[in-house]
Amino acid sequence: NQGGFNVSTSEITVPEPGIYYCYANVGYIENTTQDSSYRWTVWHRWVVDGAAQPEEARGSYCRDASNHYTASTSLATMYQLNQGSTLRLQFYHGTGFNGNDCTLLDFSHVLVYKIAE
Fold first, then answer.
1. pTM score of the predicted model
2. Backbone phi and psi for residue 82, each to the nearest 5 degrees, phi listed first
3. Can you say whether the dihedral through the CA atoms of 54, 59, 63, 69 is positive or negative?
């Protein structure tokens, strides 16, 4: 948190107008169901000033029958932002199974850099 950004548990507020490089790595997601017939994928995207953006990152297709129950996603993009613009992340996992059965583990990080006026 350098350069005047305001960071809370739910969003990042940009200190000044400009073009920003925004990167998010969701480093390690585990499917805790581990059902042999279960297939799943995860994704995330940026939300800028409350509006979900069209760019998204999807994790690899996982199938528990082959002991494949972890995934990761990364997304890098640039946005023209105003002073006070907010950034947050939105997550989804598609499974064909009802329930909250994915756990975000370690190794995730977010980077936001101003690269131009």
1. 0.78
2. -100, 165
3. negative
Q: How far is 80 from 20, CA to CA, in rounded Å? A: 6
Are the C-beta atoms of 68 and 75 separated by less than 8 Å?
Answer: no
Dist. CA 77–CA 46, nearest whole Å: 9
**Total length of the chain:** 117
- Tokens in use for 102? 């994915």
The per-residue pLDDT for range 35-50, each reduced to its tens digit, is: 555 666 777 899 999 9
Residues 26 and 74 sit within 8 Å (Cβ to Cβ)? yes
Beta-sheet pairing, 51-52 with 39-48: antiparallel
Closest CA to 43 of 95, 110, 111, 107: 95
In 3D, which of 102, 89, 90, 106 has the Cα closest to residue 7?
Answer: 89
pLDDT score of 54: 93
| Separation CA 108–CA 103 (nearest Å) | 12
